Amino acid sequence: MTVGVGFIGAGPVTQAIHLPAVAGLSDRLHVARVMDVDEGTAAAVAARAGAAHGTSVEELLADPAVEIVAVCSPHAFHAEQAEAACAAGKKAVLVEKPLATTLDDARGIAKAARDTGVPIVVGAMHTYDPAWLAAERHWGDLPATARRIRSRIVLPPNARFETLATQLHAEPVFPVRAGDPSDPAVRAASIRGAVLGLAIHNLPLVRRFLPRVERVDVARPLSPFGYVLTFQGGGRTAELIGYLHRGWREEWSFEVWGDGGELRLDFTPSYVRAGSATAELRTPTGLHTFGPHPDNGYTGEWQHLAALATGAEPLRYAASDLVDDLAYALDLAERAADLLLQGTAA
Amino acid sequence: MTSTTLEPLPVTLSGSTDHPAVHATLASLPKYFRPATPGGPTTGTVVAVPTLTALRAALDARPTGILLAGVAGVAAGGVADVRELAGRAAAAGVPVVVAGPWALDPAVAALAGALDAEDASLIEVTATVPAGSSPPDVLLDQLALLRTAIGPARAVEVIQADAHGHLARAHVGDVPVHLAAAVSGLGTRRARLDVLGPAVQWRLSFPDPATARPATVARTDADGERLLPTLYESAYRAAWRHLHAAVTDGATPPYSLHDLADDLDLLHN
Question: Is the pTM of this model over 0.80?
């Protein structure tokens, strides 16, 4: 008997990332129901998995075949739907990042999880990457002795990977970015979007090594999409580079330099099932390499969700941690935006 | 390449430049250089000096050329000192090559201006350096690399600097530049220069400059990625070649005292 999964939202991430990941764990999971506001999308995507479909969240939550709920809807709906899934007494809830759009909403989700005992998992896939987890088991006091952190996400358009991960039911439509790029308000909105849309993928990792942001020094939006962010806290310095270009080459790295060790991870791109990151941990005793493993962080998320649903393992990241991750991202985005509004950041 | 029919130039190694690694480098260029007579006058020899102070003293002895082995400590001094020395050297007709870990790497010279960053969205110059490195000195080395690979920076602003590294920003033309370095107690010195553009990206990776391990230079565009031929020569050996060319052929060094003064000016202003 495998555990049934219900998807709220059947967009590209559900189609290209989650459905193949769940299918790859067919010994323990199956897709029970797919909900989307577009009935045609819900029906088409559900049919691929042999699942029921509908346009109603309530109907999905009332379905006893749905034991794990995956909230993959637009960000603004995450809080309401995650809380409803907890109230419905599901065995586990996956909420795609960001957990919520406000800290109050995130706290509401955490409270619902606490009150109902339903475990919440945020789709911060790199925190479930087997190479990250292996490095974590060996890095000793690196979080305490870290001095410098560098996150670098340089990627081609998502479509390059989506089309190799699935055959989308319909091509996604993205809003056209508008506004004068020299306008501080436009730049502030741009950096806010870049932090919460791209940088956020690595921010839980950054927070492990720079837990409290005291000052953002540089916030520079890049054209056509990207950012340079530098910030400090607790005597540590972080630099975040993100850039989406029109080419094909990707580089998704995360580096830490500490007093007694150094860490570098090279992640595979999202969407495609290209395995885990490769982690290199350099310590006074030598260079230790972890990965690449066949499973990536998305599969890691679903393995954890399946184990939570069956009680096979405890929750890896407490709800309070997830709230703190979001608080970190929102704080960073606001500080960066404020700097641009002051006109002193770039 | 300069003529090899000339007699090798006698070399005087001053202070800390009298080091086995430098001897090994010179021994790999036997048609260009030979050791000067021990204890003999430096007049008429090429001289390697470790500091600006030693360079000033060396100029008085009328050498045929000078190699400044690095920029350690230079940032602590004044721009005027470097300009004055550059002027003195020029007036005396003594070419001066400023060596460094990356700027004179033969992979940079091989680009021959092909690295066009005009359409780039961002240039990154990042380095990992040994403990004890001075942030201003490392920044000077990074600015030197930027200058020889792409062009001179402008509007350099140091954001943060401490014993663990530094962050700075600048522009080359209208393109923003991110400069960073992290101090490593475990790894070797290394650097990267990335040019990120919407259609073309460049990646120059420099391994330990104490070895002849080659830099890798990759250009990525819609047709794929082109890796330029590797050259197993350190930037330091290349610096000696440039000095030979400057002395024997009057070639202009890729990175001179004037360039160093300009980069120092960027740091101080």
Answer: yes
